[in-house]
Amino acid sequence: MEAGLTFRPLICLSPLKCNKASLPYPFHRIQLSRFSSGMYIKTQNNETYKLNTSTDNGAPKMNIQNENKLPEATIEARLNLVGCCNELNAGYAADGYARSRGVGACVVTFTVGGLSLLNAIAGAYSESLPIICIVGAPNSNDFGSKKILHHTIGLPEFDQELQCFKTVTCHQVVINDLADAQEQIDTAIAICLRESKPVYISISCNLVAIPHFSFNHDPLPLFSSPKMSNQMALELAVETAAELLNKAVKPVMIAGPRLRAAKACDAFMELADSCGYALAVMPSAKSLIPEHHPRFIGTYWGNASSPFCNETVSIADASIFAGPLFDDLSTVGYSLVFNKAKAIIVEPERVLIPNAPVYASVLMKDFFKALVKRLKRNSTAYTNFQRIYVSEGYDDLIPNASSKESAVRVKVLSERIQKILSANMTVIAEAGDSLFLCQNLSLPRGCGYESQLLYASIGWSIGATLGYAQAALHKRVIACMGDGSFQVGGQEVSTMLRWGQKSIIILINNGGYTTESKIHDGPYNIINNWDYTTFIHAIHNNAEAKCWTAKVHNEEELVEVFETAVRDKKDCLCFIEVIVHKEDCSKQLLQVGCMLAAANTRPPIIS
Fold it and tell me: What is the reported pLDDT for 597?
């Protein structure tokens, strides 16, 4: 291979269906720094992102069937190839990887792979995660030829997949000519990073590894024009906001999920430290701000809020909502009762203040940094919170050692997870009651937390755990999920074992879709019960991979198993199946279930 034709793709955890297209040579345009555990992309703004790659099990080799051949040396020198079991799980893995490293990517085959991936990318779009979706497209000569190809829906046009991805990505490019491939790829990646949303790149399979003059030199740094605030609008927004907030008696601050995409978490905390306001977090923003902060009052979630958090926010005479998302789940059926006439809504690129114009082109982080200098310190709301706060306590939940027959209660399970949390862990909570249980956890300093509350795709957590653990090697992931969710993508545990991951997977076995049963009960919520620990043993066929399983029937066993997982089995992937009663669930699930049931049964409006 020619010395100048080095292969430097922008790829992280991704499924690779190579019988359509291997990773495209043009990705060497990204300036990368070689590192033993992966790769990095460096932008002109000196933002650095660590990257990996993966494939799906349908194509364990890069040049399967000798099609679209890409020399192995060009892969091994730059990439860790992590194979996933299917495209959907690999999309979830890219999601998890992006949460840890700032950007993810996935590579799939045309249509059959792309449409399988689509659901995961829609979830990433809802979470504002930058993921680069790369699709190996048909031979460039087949476009416009009226030929009907395999992996299509039987039509001679090949744009069906593209049309689907247009709704869940912020930019799409189709490359069937190398003349402008470098420019199109650079543009797509720059938009992905700037907008913090997925992008779609389709590349004809016959263009892979073909030399072209635009790729013959070491790549220049990826250029992306930085976003800038309108200074006049910024100054007016800060002045108006400061006037409202400085007149307030008991103002509060609430962190929302869009803080991450706006890259404004540090600026938000700088403001919180300066102004002294009581500090709360919306459920989908958990872990974006430190819960050990001295004025943290918990999760603001309407009737499902942390104790006395709802009351503190509701009676506040002014509030700052940073990157909020007021969907039906985050608001428990739009039941938030904060003072909207005194609420400042700060979005990633604009500020909304009551009785004032919309201040557009104002970046969230710029607004917070400027506001630091203008606000008077006011801790009244937090002082009031301290007066009324009474801990719920868990003394009544400590298991009785002599009662070996008592079933595990979900509140006890939540408390036991709490006791094993540490700074070197990240909790990943599946949609459903697992999320509601984990939402109550108090995260110690340095402990991460990830969930998917808005899109709530059942089965997301297994792939996300794989991706997150592969990206954050210094963290041990605790993944909490239900039995129904595990049945969607549980085979991806085999990939975790293959890569020697040491996550702790806690499977709540309650015999079905308990969350769905609280919304609308029926026989369709009952699933076939698996022998889950035996399933894990069946896929654990690598003698070098360390795996430990346990099945928990009572609360005494729960204590012993958790202690073993974090102490004696800290170098193993631990799979813990916890048997609970099918009707046992969190208080938050009952509240949200009732809300959704009522919303779903509203009669049609007759005009």
Answer: 83
CATH code of 102's domain: 3.40.50.970
Torsion angle in degrees (nearest 10) through CA of 485, 488, 489, 491: 110
Strands 278-281 and 252-255: parallel
pLDDT digits 0-9 by tens, 429-481: 999 889 999 999 999 999 999 999 999 999 999 999 999 999 999 999 999 99
Residues 292 and 143 in one domain: no
What are the start-end ranges of the H helices in 196-262? 231-247
Same domain? 324 vs 459: no
d(CA 590, CA 577): 23
Mind listing the pLDDT tens digit for each residue in 50-92?
Answer: 445 444 433 322 222 222 323 333 343 456 677 899 999 999 9
* Helices and strands: H and E segment counts in the chain: 19, 22
Q: SS3 of 217, please?
A: coil
Cα–Cα distance, 426 to 447 (Å, whole number): 5
> Are both 249 and 322 inside the same structural domain?
yes
Question: pTM score, two decimals?
Answer: 0.87
Q: Is residue 602 part of a domain?
A: no
The distance of Cα 599 from the centroid of its chain, to the nearest Å, equals: 27
Residue 190: which domain range? 25-215
How far apart CA 471 and CA 452 sit, in angstroms, is 18
Spacing of C-alpha 100 from chain mean position: 9
Number of neighbours of residue 263 by Cβ within 10 angstroms: 15
Helix (H, G, I), strand (E, B) or coil at 57: coil
Tell me, yes or no, whether 119 and 264 share the same domain: no
Residue 580, classed as helix, strand or coil, is coil
Pairwise CA distance, residues 126 & 222, whole Å:
26
Of 365, 388, 411, which residue constitutes the final position of a domain?
388
- Claim to verify: residue 266 and residue 370 sit in the same structural domain: yes
Whether 13 is in a domain gets the answer: no
Type of residue found at 111: T
pLDDT of res. 285: 97
- Does residue 449 belong to any structural domain of this protein? yes
Give the domain CATH number at 235.
Answer: 3.40.50.1220
CB 253 within 8 A of CB 271: yes
Phi first, then psi, for residue 580 (nearest 5°) are -130, 160
Same domain, 47 and 165: yes
- Tokens 């605790």 locate to 478
Burial class (CB in 10 A: 0-12, 13-18, 19+), 316: buried
Three-state secondary structure call for residue 157? coil
Encode pLDDT of 168-196 as tens digits: 999 999 999 898 888 898 899 999 999 99
Domain presence at residue 237: yes
Domain tally for the chain? Answer: 3
* Residue 314 pLDDT level (bands cut at 50, 70, 90): very high
> Are 357 and 418 in the same domain?
no
* Residue type, position 196, single letter: S
Judgement on whether residues 455 and 589 belong to the same structural domain of the protein: yes
Average pLDDT over residues 300-327: 94
